[in-house]
Amino acid sequence: MQIEVAIIGAGAAGIAAARRLQDRGRKVLLVEAMDRVGGRAHTITVEGLALDLGCGWLHSAERNPLARFAEAENAAIDRSHAAWRNQLRNLGFSAEQQRAAWKTYDSFDQSLRDNPPPDDIAGKAIARDHPWRPYLDMISGALNGAELDFVSAKDLLAYDDSASETNWRLPAGYGTLIGGAARALPLSLATKVLAIDHQGARVGIETSKGRITADAVIVAVPTDILARGDIAFTPAVDDHLHAASCLPLGRVDKLFLAMEDADAVPPETHLLGNPHSALTGSYYLRPFGRPLIECFFGGIAARAMEEAGDVGRIAFAIEEISALLGSDFAKRLQPVAGSWWHKEATIGGAYSHALPGHADKRAILAAPADERLHFAGEACSAHDYSTAHGAWQSGLDAADRIEPRLY
Asked: Which terminal residue of the chain has fewer beta carbons within 10 Å of its beta carbon, N or C?
């Protein structure tokens, strides 16, 4: 096949770009280092239940292009409200405390707007010894995969100004939707790209399975892969690689626990393990009414769980749940699945955050390196970074930029 555009990375961005170009009659090849498509959108099935190890929510659903795609595909969509802000029975987190915590977050957000930190460090907008500072760092861990001191204030506000409270889910799995979108695309799986030479008449791509040539290339791999130099570029693209290094992937992981007695707690409810510590888990109880608890760890908590390993992580989650729901309930929980995104060699983490002073690097990464070399991925989105729909839209944008330049 005469390849017009090679797309490196078969996550949401790469799949979107490939679909757009193929729909316009272009010859494409999607090249993926893993043995599956979807990237950080990954659904597994355990005892007939679809579990999303990566992204699981159609955020800002009223304007989310993947929500529109899901509707067009007649995928089942759950439009019920997320339970994140509600502590089941106010266990360990009184209603008064919850109001105080969210009031602090609102004050923090307003401070970022009214008195932006000169060094762009988001954490400077709230005192380190503020009683609700750990709570805000926990929220940042969920949103960014890192605590506030490691996050650009401008970047944080860009997301916040664009996001809505409309969050939907896919019972069959977000990864199922993304993976299904690649069904009709030419694929080369388990193919690691080693080098890209874009100086000749055609782009040369050296892979673990041999050489590919194309008229143009879209690189849609995570920022940590670019930053550590896994792909060599000739000529060099130093500005893009430096931008990637300023947009590192944070740490976010999930653990699923099966419940022996599902009726012991109501469906679609939530618990925060310890609202006074950033090193805590967020526990979504019985999502879709299933006999499961989805445990979520972000930022410092995710890093601590990596150090603890599987056994330590399971013990930590069960201990926190036991403190809230009792040891009789917790001792009957059993682990069924989990993610370790930082340990995925061709991914390297969860999703990107801009380091303080580097929010502008998203635009640099998204800009073409030359007419035949473009980049895509969630990190390229100025306001929908960290999301699958931000990645998807960046792939469409890259395809739209590159297609008119093809011969």
From this structure: C
Q: Can you give the residue ranges of every domain in the chain?
A: 5-45+173-248+353-405, 83-166+251-350
Q: Is-contact 32 188, C-beta < 8 A?
A: yes
User: DSSP string spanning 317-364?
Assistant: HHHHHHHHH-HHHHTT-EEEEE--GGG-TTT-SS-B-PPTT-TTHHHH
Helix (H) / strand (E) element for 207: namely: strand 203-207
Q: Which of 362, 360, 358, 350 is nearest to 386 (CA)?
A: 350
Amino acid in position 366: A
Q: Do the Cβ atoms of 274 and 92 come closer than 8 Å?
A: yes
Per-residue pLDDT tens digits for 169-210? 999 999 999 999 999 999 999 999 999 999 988 999 999 999
Residue 1 pLDDT class (50, 70, 90 cuts): low
Q: Could you tell me whether strands 282-285 and 292-298 are parallel, antiparallel, or unpaired per DSSP bridges?
A: antiparallel
Q: If you ran DSSP here, which 8-state letter would residue 78 be given? A: B
Stated pTM of the model: 0.97
pLDDT score of 162 more than 90 = yes
* Cα–Cα dist 292/271, whole Å: 13
Going by the DSSP 8-state scheme, the letter that residue 132 receives in this structure is T
Residue 308 CB neighbour total at 10 angstroms: 13
Rg value, the chain, Cα:
21
- Would you identify the CATH topology of the domain 5-45+173-248+353-405? FAD/NAD(P)-binding domain (3.50.50)
Cα 366 from Cα 197, distance rounded (Å): 19
Question: Band of the pLDDT at 2, cuts 50, 70, 90?
Answer: confident
Number of neighbours of residue 127 by Cβ within 10 angstroms: 9
Is the CB of residue 250 less than 8 Å from the CB of residue 349? yes
Question: What are 245's two structure tokens?
Answer: 């290094």
Q: Could you say which of 3.40.50.720, 3.30.1490.20, 2.60.40.1080, 3.90.660.10 is the CATH number of the domain covering 83-166+251-350? A: 3.90.660.10
φ, ψ of residue 33 to 5 degrees: the values are -70, -30
The rounded distance, in Å, linking the Cα atoms of 246 and 248 is: 6
Residue 196 CB coordination number (10 Å):
23
